Amino acid sequence: MERGGRTPVATEHSFDVTLEADVYKVRIRGSMDRVETDAQGRAYVVDFKTGKQAVTRGDVEHHPQLAVYQLAVREGAVDDVFDGGRPEPGGAELVQLRQGAAKKDGGDDVPKVQAQEPPDGEWVGQLLATAAGRVLDERFTPSTGDHCERCAFRGACSARAEGRHVVE
Ligand code: SF4
């Protein structure tokens, strides 16, 4: 498969880093499905998805999971597979294994790929800081959105009309 000139350096790569997010330090532990390197020596993270639902083009630009992977790269998450060096993040992508690509990208014979550019701006740090603040303050107010469509708790969720009667 053509990988845009990138070569694989690791699969199922575990990492454990601490990110600065505003006044918080946020520890992130996880596993990157695949890590590649590009011609400039940057690290590129690939995440395989097996669901039927793809994110929209706009959402992939601000996809939190991909963005956190890229921040983690910046904080040393892949140093051990780059001979101890600290590569710059060069982007990340979702590979939708159960969905075919657009015709111009190869059609149904290849999976749909949704790529995110290298991190830009402070929005991921702010997202992490908000999440950390909520956990520490124990503020778990539900927030509605597209994600509700696949949520099993809709019928008992205080933020939804159909669930409000259960909790009020
Ligand atoms: S239904 Fe409620 S709990 Fe489920 S995703 Fe939506 S806001 Fe969150």
UniProtKB/TrEMBL annotation:
Keyword set, alphabetical order: ATP-binding, DNA damage, DNA repair, Helicase, Hydrolase, Nucleotide-binding
GO MF term (any one): helicase activity
One Pfam short name: PDDEXK_1
Any one GO BP annotation for this protein: DNA repair
UniProt keyword DNA repair, yes or no: yes
Occurrences of domain PD-(D/E)XK endonuclease-like (ranges): 4-157
Record-given protein name: PD-(D/E)XK endonuclease-like domain-containing protein
InterPro entries: PDDEXK-like_dom_sf, PDDEXK_AddAB-type
